[in-house]
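ok, trying the design again with the full structure, not the truncated one.
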């Protein structure tokens, strides 16, 4: 790994450039949600076709993440960052001039290629340039971005499309990308180690088929059902591809994605728990607006306003929990957070037609506070277990598992909701679904009891 004197002394400017890039990447996943009806009308396309602008982005983004460890070892930090931001900018330009769906879809694919690079690259660089006893606070800042950016995306795009064309969204992305590129030119330094690994085409094909198949199958399962031939076919192809991909990685001297990271118990436990919690987060952000609009008759604006305070609270507590991690470790905070998430799930499992907007907002904010106490500390604890050479593989593996887990969780919980609602109504369905989430949270809490902090690290911090 790079010697200590090659780590930039003034880290903050570099961190700002990286986090701004991550914000752009995350906003890209949610900015189009409120603009899709306008795009459908202007391009004369159906809703199912328009949804590919978000589904396709998610698939490409998900396929890019597993190969990030290879890219980080192949190319310098600056080359990767500038390539990623250039993809985002070029995709935005194509979207601005697009007058047909295929061209707009191409723009989204190019943007997704850049977005898939930015998040793992940021996490890897931050883990390298900061010593273990300071990683908590910087990962707290990352947690704030991850929690807050998706929530404000639909709000920002809603305001933009109300006053301007949907293409103005891409103008905003383009301008911010150019500003960040200019700032990064003076602040980004090469801090990752280049091992110049050989390109393993078979691993890339298996990775694409595996993760792409599972992500696509899970995303289609919510609408087509798990027994649909397309869903089953893509899931089977995905699973088989992942089996062969895993075997190949373990047999290679220099793996594209080094799965040895999962041999570390603390890392694996942190990934499993945070993936489950991230899955329940995404699922609840999908199910609650559906319940509010379809059952309670509330507006899309109200559902967005319900989510916003919770996202803001999660962002603030992510910062706090990151600092606390550097002082007291992850175990206590994560256990408290898991209890909070379980309790909030029980509160959401007793919804009625009289449930108020305020009730939903308060319980959701309570839930998000608990999640902030889980994700930031456990993510940092897990990555702290890895030696420097494995950090790129750890961040890639962690982000990949979360992406797949969130997609599968959402599909499973939507299926539970639909199945329970058929004979007993939507209120019964939403209550059963959150009851299952409560049970899953309790299982995660039991797993959390096996978490152990790094005592030597804590003793060093106290000194």
């Amino acid at each position: 790994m790079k010697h200590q004197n090659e780590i930039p002394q003034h880290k903050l400017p570099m961190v700002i450039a990286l986090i701004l890039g991550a914000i752009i990447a995350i906003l890209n996943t949610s900015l189009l949600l409120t603009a899709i009806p306008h795009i459908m009308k202007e391009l004369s396309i159906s809703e199912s076709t328009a949804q590919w602008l978000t589904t396709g982005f998610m698939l490409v983004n998900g396929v890019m993440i597993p190969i990030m460890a290879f890219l980080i070892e192949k190319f310098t930090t600056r080359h990767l960052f500038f390539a990623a931001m250039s993809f985002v900018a070029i995709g935005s330009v194509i979207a601005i001039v697009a007058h047909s769906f295929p061209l707009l879809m191409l723009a989204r694919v190019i943007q997704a290629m850049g977005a898939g690079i930015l998040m793992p690259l940021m996490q890897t660089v931050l883990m390298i340039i900061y010593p273990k006893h300071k990683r908590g606070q910087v990962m707290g800042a990352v947690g704030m971005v991850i929690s807050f950016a998706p929530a404000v995306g639909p709000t920002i795009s809603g305001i933009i499309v109300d006053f301007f064309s949907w293409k103005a969204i891409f103008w905003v992305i383009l301008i911010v990308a150019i500003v960040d590129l200019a700032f990064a030119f003076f602040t980004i330094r090469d801090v990752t180690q280049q091992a110049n690994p050989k390109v393993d085409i078979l691993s890339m094909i298996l990775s694409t088929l595996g993760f792409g198949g599972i992500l696509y199958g899970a995303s289609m399962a919510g609408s087509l059902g798990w027994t649909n031939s397309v869903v089953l076919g893509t899931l089977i192809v995905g699973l088989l591809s992942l089996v062969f991909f895993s075997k190949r990685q373990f047999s290679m001297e220099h793996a594209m994605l080094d799965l040895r990271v999962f041999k570390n118990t603390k890392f694996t436990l942190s990934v499993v728990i945070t993936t489950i919690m991230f899955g329940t987060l995404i699922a609840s952000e999908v199910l609650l607006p559906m319940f509010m609009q379809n059952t309670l008759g509330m507006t899309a604006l109200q559902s967005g306003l319900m989510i916003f305070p919770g996202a803001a609270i999660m962002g603030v507590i992510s910062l706090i929990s990151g600092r606390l991690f550097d002082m007291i470790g992850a175990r206590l905070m994560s256990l408290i957070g898991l209890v909070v998430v379980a309790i909030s799930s029980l509160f959401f499992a007793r919804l009625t037609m009289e449930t108020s907007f305020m009730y939903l907002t308060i319980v959701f904010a309570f839930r998000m506070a608990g999640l902030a106490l889980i994700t930031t500390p456990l993510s940092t604890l897990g990555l702290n277990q890895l030696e420097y050479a494995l950090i790129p593989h750890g961040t890639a593996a962690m982000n990949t598992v979360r992406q797949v887990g969130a997609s599968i969780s959402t599909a499973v919980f939507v299926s539970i909701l639909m199945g329970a609602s058929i004979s007993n109504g939507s209120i019964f369905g939403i209550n059963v679904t959150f009851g299952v989430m409560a049970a899953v949270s309790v299982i995660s809490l039991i797993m959390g009891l096996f978490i152990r902090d790094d005592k030597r690290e804590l003793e060093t911090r106290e000194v």
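Keeping the full-length input from now on. The first helix runs from residue 11 to 30.
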